[in-house]
Amino acid sequence: MKISQIILFILFPLIYGCSLQTETSHDLTGEWIWIQTYGGFAGITMTPESEGYSQKLIFKRTNSYSIVREGEVTRQGKYRFNTIEIGGSSRDVIVFEPNSWETFITLSKDTLFLDPNCMDCFHDIYIKKP
User: pTM of the entire structure?
Assistant: First the structure.
């Protein structure tokens, strides 16, 4: 594991827990560029550079989305927002259809964090395309 990855794994929970505010209204419309995926049982970090491809997540005002990898749509459908109770607190989630893929959402300025509600899942980070 590279030193920069180790630093990210140490600092991310501190930054995530202390400074990011979940917005109550989510306007995700537009293109979001994939920056990093991390997690899994082995603590893997994947980036466009390490994987050799680019990917974007596109949200439309019609509540539809598509994931585009190297110009090819790999997944598409509808999305909606929901709030769930966990441990006595409320968390915002986004639900991706058609198979009800549900993940916690944190939006901070131009950065989107998608964090599935499971122990060994992969977490995604996207930045908004200007």
Answer: 0.76
